[in-house]
Amino acid sequence: MTSEIKKQTETKMAKTLENYKGTLGKIRTGRAHAGILDHVQVDYYGSMMPINQVATVNVSDARTLNVQPFEAKMAGIIEKAIRDADLGLNPATNGSTVRVPMPPLTEERRKELIKVVKAEAEDAKVAVRNLRRDANNELKAKLKDKEITEDDDKRGQDEIQKITDKFIVEIDKLTIDKEKELLTV
């Protein structure tokens, strides 16, 4: 009974961690990486598609991405989508290829991004703690309904706390890594 609650909670916490990783991937560090364009949507014959489904995104050097559309006429649409994505990028079409230079980050912008990373980390931690609270409430309800013993309740809460601690440590680790990445010039 408690193992079911534990499994559900751990699965939900893992999803929270994956969402946090995705959010960190969108935060630009000044170095080119293909993942920065993953959430950019392109108008492809009337339907919105992720950029990686209408083009190949490659890193040509440390500060430049090359986007090669599968259809040459999509280059202008892709360029506009990247410009409108509010990533601070200024793409340029060169024939059928869209070149996306990564502007260097200023010291001020790096500090702003670190604040954003810390805020996102706190949001992820709050989400994990809310999942812990929900699981503990579920255990208490089962104890009240006499479905589990007090020992099972205590053991379940201890296990949920260990899972919570594990995910909080992982979030902290990812945050520290991203901060180091942002501070690297």
UniProtKB/TrEMBL annotation:
Any one GO BP annotation for this protein: cytoplasmic translational termination
Record's subcellular location: Cytoplasm
The UniProt record lists the keyword Transmembrane helix: no
Gene3D superfamilies associated with the record: 3.30.1360.40, Ribosome-recycling factor
InterPro entries given in the database record: Ribosome_recyc_fac, Ribosome_recyc_fac_dom, RRF_sf
Domain Ribosome recycling factor: 22-183
Cross-referenced SUPFAM superfamilies: Ribosome recycling factor, RRF
Gene Ontology molecular function: ribosomal large subunit binding
Keywords, comma-separated and alphabetical: Coiled coil, Cytoplasm, Protein biosynthesis
GO cellular component: cytosol
Coiled-coil spans in chain: 114-152
Sequence similarity: Belongs to the RRF family.
PANTHER family, per the entry: MITOCHONDRIAL RIBOSOME RECYCLING FACTOR PSEUDO 1, RIBOSOME RECYCLING FACTOR
Role, per record: Responsible for the release of ribosomes from messenger RNA at the termination of protein biosynthesis. May increase the efficiency of translation by recycling ribosomes from one round of translation to another.
Protein name: Ribosome-recycling factor
